[in-house]
Amino acid sequence: MSPRLRNIAAIVIFGGFALLPLLAGMLGESFLIVIATRILAFAIAALALDLILGYGGMVSFGHAAYLGIGAYAVAILQRAGITDLGLHLLAAIVAAAPFALVTGAISLRTRGVYFIMITLAFAQMAYFFFVSLSAYGGDDGVTLAARSTLLGEPLLENDRVLFYVTLGLLLAIYLLALRITQSRFGRVLTGTRENPVRMQAIGYSPFRFQLTAYVISGCLAAVAGVMLANQTEFVSPALMNWHRSGELIVMVVLGGIGNLIGAVGGAVIALLLEEFLSRFSEHWPLFFGLILIGVVLASRDGVSGLIRRIGGAK
């Protein structure tokens, strides 16, 4: 996607979300804000995954583990009497970073389907670890006493405030990821995806760049977990099961791999389709799958590729 088209798409998506609470108020449909907050949180996770999938060529099938780490950071700190959102975000990042560092260092010793399976294995290990935490409900999960506080006040209890905070985090993470991909680090990461042997021959260490990107991606996904915990006010290991990782990959593929705003758009489209189709049938995944197949067959670059064709961009 060209920079011009990408910027237009970003303005449309972020501008549309910014105006959504006004529309919800006019229509008297406050539930739209709740749904939109969930979409924004998953958009953060999809964007984090696209950073390594689209630019690093690393197909992680275990990124939902970081959603769970972020969510449980909220639950554990709240149990300890720490309710500040900033501290919850910091704790989620601090917890996700070493997990991503260790598991990433091991996973990156493999390639292709082996990398996919080993990231899945590590995620399932994390899943069963949290299932074993009986103090936090085990497999049943735990209900949060309240949402995180902001500036010492329970501001996030207001759905609109939570929505705008999540939107602000998504925008900040999008700009950060965009900056990363446009930097020398991002160019080396992309080059490593295309030809790691050649990058090594000109003096770069593909392993270090890939591992750094993997850790950054895991930390960003943990931020999404914090916001999901606040949106649902409930935390359970189900948040980090393998099918959730698959859903994140679907979001990225649907929006367009290697296209940050496409990952955000893919999350929006996927969750809106889920919400819409589930109203008509309990077998909605079947119809969702057919739509996904149609999009992929029509464009290798997902919805963003279709938009580029319509816009006449090269």
TrEMBL record:
Membrane topology recorded in Swiss-Prot or TrEMBL: Multi-pass membrane protein
One Gene Ontology term of the molecular function aspect: branched-chain amino acid transmembrane transporter activity
Entry's localization field: Cell membrane
GO cellular component annotations of the record: plasma membrane
Keywords: Cell membrane, Membrane, Transmembrane, Transmembrane helix
Domain of life: Bacteria
Membrane-crossing residue ranges in chain numbering: 7-24, 30-52, 64-81, 87-106, 113-136, 161-178, 207-228, 248-273, 285-307
Main location: membrane
CDD domains: TM_PBP1_LivM_like
Name of the protein: Branched-chain amino acid ABC transporter permease
Organism: Paracoccus zhejiangensis
